[in-house]
Design brief:
Layout (H helix, E strand, L loop, with lengths): L5 H9 L1 E10 L3 E4 L1 H15 L3 E11 L3 E11 L5 E12 L4 E7 L2 H8 L7 E2 L1
Parallel strand pairs: 1-6
Antiparallel strand pairs: 1-2, 2-7, 3-4, 4-5, 5-6
């Protein structure tokens, strides 16, 4: 497995405030903190991104407190078949960067996205 290239990981981390919070609904699990967020993006790049077979943005809405995006992902499961997943992601604005993200989707997709980090997601 390849790690997320350091310059890319550093660039992503520079967009975030010091204690980002990520929450997955309706599942009610998530994580927070800089170290876990870096691990999330590294795992996401290594384990999840190679499974993505397609992406389409269905809508995007900008408000004072964040940016909401509705999209559809096609993801290859363990059986090799592509499945479509509906997602609503909300990037939450902070004072100087992003405070984190809220993602609304199925448990199946969150498990795929989290990969080996799944056991470390906490109730939120």
């Amino acid at each position: 497995r390849r790690a997320l290239p350091r310059p890319l990981a550093d660039a992503i981390m520079r967009t975030l405030e010091s204690d980002p919070v990520y929450e997955f609904y309706p599942l009610g699990r998530g994580f927070n903190g800089t170290q876990m967020t870096r691990r999330w993006y590294e795992t996401f790049a290594q384990e999840f991104m190679p499974r993505v077979g397609g992406f389409s943005l269905r809508g995007e809405w900008l408000g004072d407190s964040g940016l909401a995006q509705e999209y559809r992902l096609s993801v290859r499961g363990a059986d090799g078949q592509l499945r479509d997943y509906a997602v609503l992601g909300i990037l939450v604005f902070g004072e100087s960067g992003l405070k984190g993200e809220r993602i609304y989707s199925s448990e199946e997709l969150v498990r795929l996205m989290a990969g080996s980090l799944w056991p470390q997601l906490r109730p939120c």
